[in-house]
Amino acid sequence: MLLLFDIDGTLVRSRPLAHQRAMAEAAVEIFGLPPETDAAAIRAVEPWGKTDRWILRELLEAHGVAAPGTDDVARWERAACATYERIEDGEPSDADVRTRAVLDHLSAAGHELALVTGNLEPIARRKLAARGLGEPFAPERGGFGSDAEDRAELVRLALARSGADARDTVLIGDTPNDVAAGLAAGVRAVAIAGHRFDRATLLDAGANDVIDDLEELERLLT
Fold first, then answer.
1. Which residue in 11, 87, 176, 213 has its CB near the most CB atoms, within 10 A?
2. Of all helices (H) and strands (E), which one includes residue 43?
3. Is 93 helix (H, G, I), strand (E, B) or coil?
4. 16 Cβ contact partners less than 8 Å away, ≥ 6 residues apart
């Protein structure tokens, strides 16, 4: 079975402050947003479950800036990734150690693991590596915010890159947007409840199952 994991709120349960800072600083540099633009400006556009390109577009709209062209988006992505590389200071926590154990058990059980995340790929890889979570996820697999703005398209890309059948694939995320993307791509959607989206909200969004902790996932799949 192919298991597609979201990162923020799913694999990494802490707040992605360095990521948000990097996105904001790059927007100041590339698009001339006010210098006080910071992580709070990213949170103001409700980024949960959105891709980084989607978040950028809404951030620019909030400042009266027209949707950027392809070249400007590419410049922003390079700037955001470079800034993130410089400021990321994460390290493995007890929660990360438990998450790694879950991933290792799932892999040992024969499941293929891949990422479907709104993070730009260099940020996604760096974020997981800093927390000891990167190794289970092979290169050239998954779908990332640097691939497309539409999250459902990331699921389809991940399926194509793994050569997997949607009917034998499960997406694991923590937001209604994760659930919607999985359902749109025809895969089973398992949601993990958290402080922002509770069990009822995720079930209302159409999640096939809701869990409270990743440690429940292996039992659910069997």
1. 11
2. helix 39-44
3. coil
4. 8, 127
pLDDT tens, residue by residue, 172-215 = 999 999 999 999 999 999 999 998 999 999 999 999 999 999 99
Residue whose entry in the numeric block shows the structure tokens 């103001």? 44
| Mean pLDDT across 77-86 | 98
Please report the pLDDT score of residue 34 as a whole number: 97
The residue range of the domain holding 163 is: 2-13+92-221
CATH number of the domain within which 138 lies: 3.40.50.1000
Can you tell me the distance from the alpha carbon of 30 to that of 103, in angstroms, rounded to the nearest whole number?
37
Determine the Cα angle at 184 with ends 179 and 186, to 5°.
Answer: 95
Among residues 87, 106, 133, the one where a domain terminates is 87
Res 90: pLDDT = 86
DSSP 115: E
Q: Which helix (H) or strand (E) holds 79?
A: helix 70-87
DSSP 169-183: EEEEESSHHHHHHHH
Is the whole-model pTM more than 0.70? yes
> Is residue 173 a contact partner of residue 182, using CB atoms and an 8 Å limit?
yes
Residue indicated by tokens 């790694």: 100
